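User: Structure please.
Assistant: Input sequence and predicted structure:
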Amino acid sequence: MSKFFSLSKVLMKDVVSVLDMKFGNKGGKFTGPILWGIVGLCMLPLIFVFYMLFQGVCAIFVPAGELAYITGFMFSIVCLVVLFFSIVSVPSVFYFSNDVETLLPLPLRPAQIIGAKFFVALTMEYGIALLIIAPMYAAYLSYLPVGSLTLNMLIGLLLLPVTPLAYSSIIVMVLMRLFRFGRNRDFYNLIIGLVALVFGAGIGIFSSQLNTITPEQAVELLEGNRGVLDNLRSIFPGTLFAGRAVANGEAGAQLINIAITAGVVALFLFLSKFLYFKSVIGISESSAPSRKMTKEEVLTGARSSGIFASYLQKELRLLFRNPTALMNCVLMVFLMPALMIGSMAFQLSNTDIDLSGLLLAIDYNNPRVVSFIMAGAAAAGIFISCMNLVTCTCISREGKNYIFMKYVPVSYRTQLNAKAASGLAVSVAGLVLFFAGLEIIFKAPLTVFLGALILSLPGGILMNYLGMLIDLAKPKLVWDNEQRAVKQNVNSVILIFGGMFLAAVIGVVGGIFLKTPLTAFVTLLIVTGALAFGSMQMVLTMGESYLEKLNV
């Protein structure tokens, strides 16, 4: 056991290293915790939504005597969410980390290696479980005894992610063992990531309909779908007893839950001995096919072009050919507008409101209405562009290859502008998609549409250059997995929440104080244009200095 704990402690350093933040070459002992504390504050609205949901559940099902049943079902939903997200995280821990080849020759038992990696993956899933169980606990306080509730909720939190994580780990091991595509990290991440985005979109649309369900409809839904709910709980059998332990305080049910979880872990360790090591051998070998290039291909690839155009082409190819960068830096800019417009259209089509009458009620001849649209467009340009993580990770994604930027015969100024242009191209495409979708729904006059689109562009320039400035000041160059350069990069968090705040300020202030369309358009264009120009000059002035001092 001592080797298991020692190995788990070593592997956990990669997980907690994300809290060790630096600005430039100066360490910040409290920088990471403070920034993640801010992220926690930003999660409070979501936690409050969960709390209100569980309050409504208690109000409906406690009088009906069905709290234990529905609690077990909600635990099953949590397990289902953990199962899905762990399918994304398990390959990074078990297969795509650089410690695999180091651990295999060490005098460690298979169960110790697998168990330690399972423990590391489990700590990542506790965040998802805690996000849901904490508001559930707060909602149940008004209905259940505190002592029993606290103990059983704590045990539930500790045990709940174990079974779905074991399931997902076995699924991933089988995929890696049987199918070659699983061994291609890039292709695997792309497919799973796309499925994750679709899954998240489905959850968002489903959640938006929950507030329309009445208590009577909820009870009828429960009675009419007990077979379906029982089938879901049978996949995660411990949730049935966990629900009874929480709602009724049954100690025996909790003991059965513990025994089931222990049995799942034992079965996982037994199966993984036969699956994991056979599938992990040779995982670092390239899966790319090799072939000879024809003379025409060589000549086509060797044609000359301008320095800026060539560097920009290189940046765009890195973005779109790397599934990690494509999923995390590019696709969100397109998916966010699509989800917003799709959700808006779905809501309008599923209400009793006459959509045509609602659209006709928008008076585009009213100066205040158009002024408000102009302010919203400027804010939307910033909001959508802050979801673009291209430039706020452009230096970090270089990793240890950052030295290429120093010896390539291209000026720092050109390199920075090309990186900014790659991010701006993505932002502009997302903005055009967003405003085109809104135009299809609301059918605004062409002048309003074009004015809104023009006002959104300076926000794209502003956020892309600000993101680059943040990454220049604090790049994350040391990583063993390219996903860490994006997903565990606090620069993305700073840009997203900073952009949201700035968008809110511009949208609210502009909507309140700018009374006429012309005043709104000119003022907002000057303000956002000045901010964009200032950010560009800051990057081009300070960027060269940052790059000169850049080192791992």
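The two ends are 36 Å apart (CA to CA).
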